[in-house]
Request: fold
Amino acid sequence: MADMAVRSATLSGDALSAVGRPDLVVVGAGWAGLAAAVYATRAGLRVLLLDAAPSAGGRAREARLDFGCGPVTLDAGQHLLVGAYRESLALAHLLHGGAPPVERFALALRDSAGLHLRAARLPAPLHLAVGVLRARGLPLRERVAMLRLMRALRRSGWRVAHGETVEGLLTRLRQPASLVERLWSPLCMAALNTVPEQACAAAFAAVLRDTLGAAREASDFVLPSTTLGALIATPAERWLHARGAQLRRGTTVRAIAAHAGGWRVHAARDEPAIDAAQLVLAVPAHAAARLLASLCEDAAQPGLQATRRAAGPCIARLGEFAYDAITTVYLAWPASQQPPLPRWIMLRESAARGEHGQWLFDRGQCGAQRIAAVVISVRARLSDIPVDEIAAGIGRQVAAQLGVPPPAAMRTVTEKRATFRCTPDRPRIEVDAFAAELPGLWLAGDYAWPDYPATLEGAVRSGRLAASRALQRHADNARRRAGAASN
Reply:
């Protein structure tokens, strides 16, 4: 019923003309686009949300998987939220009209070889310091090295050397190789989806600053009680529909053009163009680059020569992002077995044994099965290994390291362009990168929050900021019109 209610909000081109020009068109219904649409609608703008996919959510969408007992709905890829994701949690709170369906757990890092680090119930930064000193499964020198790294970063204001990699940072701060292999490298790949020898130390420091280096609750693990789609995407569509925003799924935007002091969006060839006062491109960077390039190449638009020259370099940078995949292997056991799985745990990788799983999350009971998700970041490292071989190795790895029966069934989901590679030389793009050359056009997406690696939190923050910029321009234009009328 909820899905039917959302679909009823879909408008044809004629219906859009009937309700008048939207104040804001948002292209893309991932978390960035949903955040932009929600906050703009909340402030009173007339919003139209377009997305090429049949369902909202972007890379946090849902997937239907069958393990032999009928299909179940899971995330298309396993994601971890943390307490520092304040904008994502605030959006969920707004959409659910109160506390969202999540569980919070104080920071606890465990691995399958005996590491157990739990934050103390003390104010920051004592919660981490005491937790590290009490940690089990790590030699004293490694615990001291961890504290040395955090202290050095805090004293530097969480700044690192220009162009420094995570590997360089860990070497400079004298982190033992065994600690790097067991802790820092898995954390780096999980947070940045980039190997330490290539990963950006500044982004890694920002992640540590806002989690381990912030208030005690910022380092909490936050696990949704349902899918991420049910946490954000589905309630966002309901929320927008209930407040008069328009949504069109399955609509691929082919081109954009400046038009009549605003923007014209060209979608399906047999449908009329859509005009709007402002535009948010909440699509991946490469898709934004394609749309912007078509805009600047449109010779039919007079007066764009200077814009082409000014915007061209930034458009080119949008196309320079490199991407890597993330694979999630879902494991299923019959409900009758009920294997004793931890809620989450770091697994020990072994290339020699073909065991490449990094993190395991217990997804609980799903129908007649118990489901767990095992994540493999930086999937490009294993590009020469067949998917079935990777999955079989993970089945063996989980059974051996956690002492549970081999899974009865496995399904693999790979997001080929899961995140951009977070290297020191990656492009830095802001939400308002084109504000001077292309007024009323804003960017949103995980890449448009350059302080962070590609995260759902960065996407939501960029979407809210894009809505804020659009609201400010809307208000400025209204004041100018009122001033002109009074004169």
